[in-house]
Amino acid sequence: MSVEILKQGAEGRLYLGDFKGQACLIKERFVKKYRHPELDTQITRQRMKAEAKASARCLAAGILAPKILNSDLNTHKLYMEYFDKAKTAKQFILETVATQGEDNAKTSLLELCTKIGHIIGRMHSNNIIHGDLTTSNILINPNGCHYDVILIDFGLSHYNQATEDKGVDLYVLERALLSTHSEQPYLFEKILSEYRTNDNDQHAVLSKFEEVRARGRKRTMIG
Length: 223
Ligand SMILES: Nc1ncnc2c1ncn2[C@@H]1O[C@H](COP(=O)(O)OP(=O)(O)OP(=O)(O)O)[C@@H](O)[C@H]1O
Ligand SMILES: [Mg+2]
Known about the structure:
Elements: E1 5-8, E2 12-19, E3 22-29, H1 37-60, E4 68-72, E5 77-80, E6 87-88, H2 89-125, E7 128-129, E8 138-143, E9 146-151, E10 158-159, H3 163-180, H4 186-196, H5 202-222
Antiparallel strand pairs: 1-2, 2-3, 3-5, 4-5, 6-8, 7-10, 8-9
The structure holds adenosine-5'-triphosphate and magnesium ion.
């Protein structure tokens, strides 16, 4: 049987398959030969469990994420809902700028960032830490004449209220945006200003974020 591979990497691969007759995406993690087998099994299971738990928590909190249909810890496969029309936020931003031009793109991208900021604020107010919040882990899924923003790739996620961890999530996202979309500094600014309007303890998170950012700067200067 031939399978359509979406992504083949060192860590694992993603391909289309089915679960009980329902089309889905299968995310398979590879065994790492260089790691001690027991430790490897432990890490893999931990990541798979984290991914399944965080997706469920997001959905319960009204945040869009793929439904996990099945988690097979023995074969290291996660079966999840597949959004076949979705593209990553990274692709979406690059394409919007390329097709509409810098100035015209700004209005639609600001709208996108309002949505992203709102969703991350809600995720953090539910104490869900993403752990790898990049623009490749945010999907844009067309829905009528609008689109939905969906969070994916929760393998490094955890559940806690530490402002430090939330600050790190924001910092990771800022770095991701700056590295690919350095011409659009307004993107992260908009995300942050929308994030601020959430009703939880965002003030403490933002000062942590500033701290994390300052540490990051120092590190870059020292080399
Ligand atoms: N449910 C989904 N529906 C549609 N596309 C998806 C879905 N999940 C992942 N993708 C696509 O596959 C890519 C890789 O998926 P994902 O980020 O989960 O894996 P990864 O980065 O290899 O994972 P990890 O960092 O845990 O090793 C995403 O950037 C996205 O383009
Ligand atoms: Mg990813």
